[in-house]
Specification:
298 residues; alpha+beta; Alpha-Beta Plaits; 4-stranded antiparallel β-sheet; 10 helices; elongated
Length: 298
């Protein structure tokens, strides 16, 4: 029976004009609901903008801090001191095959000794320094992993790298990511709560009208759609209002990058704006939907 119904529906021509009229009516209903909310709209949109501005500022700052961390991390190198009589080129070939190794530079012991003699006065003795490899890693988080792997090489006498600085950088990245996630969760909770309370007021004001539509057999989605669109509208409007202070934050961060001569993350501002609009609209729509499920059971 179900297959028969689906086959019949496939052969029924779709009236696209009718569907457009329905969408138009739903849009008009959404606008009427927004007008019905009155001056409360200003409070809701302003509050949403404040929440979104805090989120966007944290997210954009996190991207810059991550960029600073990676730039500084790329300057961190593992110094590998080789045993006497070992060919540095052979060790370089072996180490270059390891995962996360980005570049290797050979520092001959003669060059190191000459540089040291230029800096300080030394007696005329044989060169006691070893051949050295400076190993650059693709990501600061992989320094310890690469360090442990190189340590297993038999030709290596000793090794060193700024472990304390690397751990501090890793801790900063972890803290920034944690704060960003916490801000997202708080933003989601506040947005859903605000939208939920607002839509509840609209539902109460349209309760009789909604009951009549349900008795007439109107589709549940026809009833839900204006409320969901209203929640999405608040999220979109809040994001638009948050763009102004976000522009000032962007300029300040760009000046900071120029001052320290560290490139800004590519497309950072576009990423922040896209994520902010997407999340605000999504949370606004979800807040409305949850309120509908709770108070209308449709």
């Amino acid at each position: 029976m179900n297959n028969l119904k689906s086959n019949v529906k496939k052969h029924i021509p779709k009236d696209w004009l009718c569907e457009l009229r329905i969408l138009y009516r739903l849009g008009i209903q959404t606008c009427n609901d927004i007008k019905r909310t009155g001056w409360v709209n200003i409070v809701i949109i302003t509050t949403m903008a404040a929440i979104l501005m805090i989120f966007a500022a944290c997210f954009r700052t996190a991207l810059s801090i991550s960029s600073f961390s990676k730039e500084l991390g790329s300057a961190l190198e593992i110094s590998v001191y080789l045993k006497s009589g070992i060919n540095p080129a052979d060790v370089k070939t072996e180490v270059s095959k390891m995962e996360h190794v980005q570049a290797i530079k050979i520092i001959p012991k003669a060059d190191s000794w000459q540089k040291l003699k230029n800096e300080i006065s030394l007696p005329n003795i044989d060169n006691p320094l070893p051949d050295t490899l400076h190993v650059k890693v693709d990501d600061p988080e992989n320094l310890q992993t690469v360090y442990d792997e190189i340590k297993k090489v038999k030709s290596v006498e000793d090794m060193s790298y700024p472990k304390e600085l690397a751990s501090k950088m890793e801790m900063v990245n972890h803290v920034v990511k944690t704060i960003t996630i916490a801000v997202i969760l708080i933003m989601a909770l506040l947005t859903v709560t605000i939208i939920n309370n607002t839509i509840q007021l609209v539902i109460q004001s349209r309760k009789e009208e909604i009951e009549i539509m349900r008795l007439m057999g109107v589709s549940n989605w026809y009833i839900r759609f204006p409320f969901i669109m209203q929640g999405a509208f608040y999220g979109f409007s809040g994001s638009l209002l948050a763009l102004l202070p976000l522009g000032y934050i962007q300029n300040a961060l760009l000046n900071m990058h120029k001052f320290f001569m560290i490139p800004s993350p590519p497309m950072a501002q576009n990423i922040v704006i896209t994520v902010m609009f997407a999340m605000s609209i999504l949370f606004g729509a979800v807040g409305s939907f949850l309120c509908i499920k709770k108070h209308l059971q449709v």
